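As agreed, record passed on underneath.
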Amino acid sequence: MLNAVAPASLLEEEGLVAELDLLGVSYLSRLAATRPAPVRPAEQLLAGLVRQSSARVREAVIAVLLAHPDLATSVPVALAQLSTADQVTLRLFYTAAVLLQQEYADRLQALFLPRWQPLPDLFASELGLSHQGSPGERLVRLGQRHRGLTGTAVNWTGTYHNVARHLIRRLEMEQRWNQSPS
């Protein structure tokens, strides 16, 4: 169990994971049974996720946007709270969420109706991404752009898909668990 001597960054990470759980993004495991505080305002949540040193928590901003596309309106305010590097990360992850939402539209709509809504494309042009091609092709180009902007040799396309698959798989399992027996 985490205690008062745990580093502040770990306590913040655990708090964010607990808040994500309250929002229905429950695929991330916790290190302790952290009692979640009320979910912070959307712009603070998005900025807090992007600032995390832990990749699993930072990348969860994609899952939050897929599960709660209404949070797109808070992205500009969140950007204003971030460093330049973190602003780039949020723009990239937001754009990944836009494309993943298109790629997994049928499954996401089934999970989130009636509150499903399309994420507006806010940053593709700014990131130099063409609107040509399928969502999958555009995700590949976004992953390449992500590598170029961050100088990291990560398979970003695979990372984006991994986040979406974890979220969808967990929600579909929960949906099955919660169905009453016929």
The radius of gyration is 16 Å. The chain has one domain: 8-173. DSSP finds nine helices and no strands in the chain. Residues 1-5 have pLDDT under 50 and may be disordered.
